[in-house]
Each structure stands twice: as C-alpha cells, then as structure tokens.
Amino acid sequence: MTINPVLIKSSYAAIEAHGSEVTAHFYRHLFEHHPAVRPLFAEHLDEQQDRLWAAIGALVTHLEDTETLVGVLEGLGRRHAGYGALPAHFPAVGGSLLATLAHFAGDAWTPETEESWTAVYGVVTDVMGRALTAELATGSA
C-alpha cells in the first residue's frame, strides 16, 4: 500500500467542512463497535474531540514532512501510554477512523483513497505504537 498525498489532502478537504461532526461520529462509532475502549476516555469528550481533530489536521498538514510528522506521532504515542492505551487498541481506532472518513468524504472516498488512508494509518500505528510501547517499558506512563 502506498500513500498518495493528493488523495489524502483532497479527501480531507471534503471532510474538513464538517468539523466537530466528524469527531463526534468517530467516537459514537468507536464506542458502539468497541465498547471495551470506552473507559479509556473521559465522560465528556468535547476537549478530546478537539484534540483528535487537531491531530488529524496535523497529520494531513505534515504528511510530506517526515521529521515533523514522526515527532508529532511519537509525542502522541507517549501521551497515550498515560491514558492506558495499548497497541492492541489501534485496530479498533483505525477501523472507526476509516469508517468516519468514508462517511464524511462522500464522492471523494474511492478505493484508492481508502487504500491511501489505510497506509497512512499504518504509519500512525507503527510510529505511535513504538513510542507507546517504549514509554510503557520505561514505566513512565
């Protein structure tokens, strides 16, 4: 699978106008399909939704700036260790993220777009997962 920055950015442009609806939908989907992860999150998700939206925007913005992107993802991985997240949670999150993006992208969501976002999420899970695992191993979380 390869990442096509043009498809990522054009599909994000189609999604961007929906703003907080996107993150609200994501969490509804995640908790409906993976209720076991619900306790990892605060009862009220407003702040978390804002952080998720900012992280998605940073991912798209820095997609072709590997050094910055890796730094952002490593920081997210370390912070998620403190929230009780585990690499085993990443597939559930990825599934809900892709379903949400597809829902809001409309005609901009093609098989090629899905493949590209899946590849992006693979990078996210790899980098965040390594940072999260390292943080858990040091006992800092």
Automatic annotation (TrEMBL):
InterPro entries: Globin, Globin-like_sf, Globin/Proto. Keywords: Heme, Iron, Metal-binding, Oxygen transport, Transport. SUPFAM superfamilies: Globin-like. Pfam families: Globin. The keyword Lipid metabolism does not apply. Residues 1-133 form the Globin domain. Belongs to the globin family. This is Globin domain-containing protein. It comes from Kitasatospora terrestris.
